[in-house]
């Protein structure tokens, strides 16, 4: 049985690997040099110097496990070309060999993603597996961020998938272990910490042996974290490490505003300041704030109150609160993926200095939910299209333009064709399993009305409507937006107002993603799904 | 009340028959869907045929674009660079010199440096592309000064000229062909057929990696084949000569087109009608040629000068290592030393024609849609094996009809042979490939691995050619493709 579904995965992986290999000579961002330099740091310096080194402006600002990962890569790198891992000689060293080597480490590290994906799907039906495989393996975001822009998100998301698959199976300690590992690789993933904490506390640490379970879980997590940070505590460098990991001096928004709540906030602020200035009020000029949007907004807001990191943290927690309450009351493993996704969405929408790449943190796990219901599939198609589109400014060179457009279009096409087909083809038996959450599992509903709902669902599923008119219109709006920012704007304004197209993209996408967040929030108040019993 | 009743009954029975047929079709479809479920992806081919075709086209474009990100042959290697420089130089010449000087050695046109040696349509195409590039980046096609000009932006422009030709000409031609030839096949198979041709790595690598414009001549040839298959013979007589006038290599298909169209003429009721049909076709071909050669027709010398450029006899019967008969036997039989060049040319002509003959005779005698495609494959293989001065890139010409036929002929062309055979063959190729990249050949035979690879592929091609010739002869007089599934 497992050989057949593995062969499906291998087919898709080989197709996507072909594309990745062909992408080797494409544009890479400064992150390429960042990762090369980290290899050099970890290879040339003793552990206690890792977080102190300032040879290059690209200081090590990921947690220790990632540093060790770079150390491992450096072992191979020093055999390929020793200059690559030289602290000083290697600076900005990017020959074809170096590019090929670094690109292939990303491609190889994606194996963890495929492992996590396979583990998550291994108990599903073949059809469902294929759907999820395709949704993750062909994700244009991963191609764009990892294989063009250059990062290791596929690898990290693989660890997240491992953790989620363990939680879904009820292996709470292993799930917690993987999550701790993940956070020690990239601390941005810690946003889901509260969800993990409440869920594990309520789902695992209960019953008669709750105390021992709590101790077991706690010792696992502490061991992992201790392994990662212990050496630095020993050297008395924790303060330095934390300073590197949380550079709050960077400002509320990144150079290009990630399409979140703060993009809307900034826009409202700018519009208000312009309007008030026109009205004759004495408002600090919008010009500084505008360019501030380009270089790393630290100039503050003109009209609206300034935002501090503490406020954003409070907002993220506040946004997560309904979900935490719900998990506290009903910790269910059938829903845990959904809440982790929600936590990352909150972090993205309200977080401090969010980078647009962080969209991957919630879109990729969100794709694991698409086979659950037509509604979830529609939400995914919408959210993924908007957030992948919002990644476009990341690849700003004209050479990569056709690549990002065709990657996104092909993905939307595959999903847009295959999802309705998948739901339209489900037999009634499967439907009752997969779409049960729209029915009420209450005892009060009689069997008769239940079968009634089911039948209406089946007949409506023959013509599956994924998005609905409003969302379709919104997505179609991306096209004129893109045409404006690529063609009309340079034509109309030449070199003036260079930030306007980016701002428009950011604001337009933030409306969509804010909606996606609100939709997920509303799910917190839905009737709960019955817990998974058909597995194992 | 007899007749109306009878009529009614008749109508009812005919309706019944229709219903039954529809039911049968449904059942067949259901069975097909079921088997899809268990074996492979159940992709909604039928309901969303157009979108799925678009998906294939989009993926084909993406792959082509990704290949074009890489380097081309001869990049940064003076003095002659590679085919990229040849094409760029042709743009330089056609944009900056008058038409009659394009094929002539002048002070501005040094024929020893990548002189034009393709037919006029290539020259016009170079002129069009060159004009576009001149408008956007004049220094890339400036006379004399632009030799070996390579900049990231000019490379991207050049790549886009190939990409756009491929998308605007090759893609529609293949779509047309698939929709005509496989019109009675299940949509799923049509999508696969489309993917077989569009995702073929050879064409992608040669056009978008190595740098050439085969997509134009092959696209025109495929469009000609689509016209033949859809019985638009006059269109075929326009499109195929255009292909021939873009790249003389298309002559590999000429016997197939000639034989099939001649056979179709003979199918008419009487000799008079046959002659009329033949004359019509002939006049169309001649007119097409005349239009293509118009600028060079002012004097006999100009035309002859162009012609002499197209047939470079001095190059010898074989060069490098091509998996054909002359190279394959050269290990034991030193053709070049044994015979004079003129004799070898005649010998090559004779063997090529006789290798094409069986396939041609079959098509003259029994022209059919399927047979025509087999004939294209057989004749191009015959040319590849025996003709004079074959380049290894010429293998594209047999590849195209082979991949167009892939759904018809899954055993051989989709490699659905016994597993042990496929395993042995593929691992043999892998071993040869590894040897080629990893081992140093003995000093006495510096080209040992090339020769081995050539012999290995030739050993595969010969049984293939024999098999496809045999298959063509097994075809009935007019293949009832139309009745195959209904």
UniProtKB/TrEMBL annotation, chain A:
GO cellular component: endoplasmic reticulum membrane
GO molecular function, one term: glycosyltransferase activity
Family: Belongs to the ALG6/ALG8 glucosyltransferase family.
Pfam families for this protein: Alg6_Alg8
Protein name: Alpha-1,3-glucosyltransferase
Secretion signal, residue range per the UniProt entry: 1-18
Compartments, as annotated in UniProt: Endoplasmic reticulum membrane
Transmembrane segments: 131-150, 177-201, 213-235, 303-324, 336-354, 403-423, 499-518
Membrane topology qualifier: Multi-pass membrane protein
InterPro entries (alphabetical): Glyco_trans_ALG6/ALG8
Functional pathway: Protein modification; protein glycosylation
Sorted UniProt keywords: Endoplasmic reticulum, Glycosyltransferase, Membrane, Signal, Transferase, Transmembrane, Transmembrane helix
Assigned EC number: 2.4.1.-
UniProtKB/TrEMBL annotation, chain B:
Entries under InterPro entries matching the protein: Glyco_trans_ALG6/ALG8
GO cellular component: endoplasmic reticulum membrane
Keyword presence, Transferase: yes
Enzyme Commission number(s): 2.4.1.-
Keywords: Endoplasmic reticulum, Glycosyltransferase, Membrane, Transferase, Transmembrane, Transmembrane helix
Biological or metabolic pathway of the protein: Protein modification; protein glycosylation
Bilayer disposition of the protein: Multi-pass membrane protein
EC top class, as a word: transferase
Membrane spanning residue stretches: 49-67, 157-178, 278-296, 338-360, 372-390, 417-435, 447-467
GO MF term list: glycosyltransferase activity
Protein localization: Endoplasmic reticulum membrane
Broad class of the protein's primary localization: endoplasmic reticulum
Family: Belongs to the ALG6/ALG8 glucosyltransferase family.
Name of the protein in its database record: Alpha-1,3-glucosyltransferase
Organism: Riccia fluitans
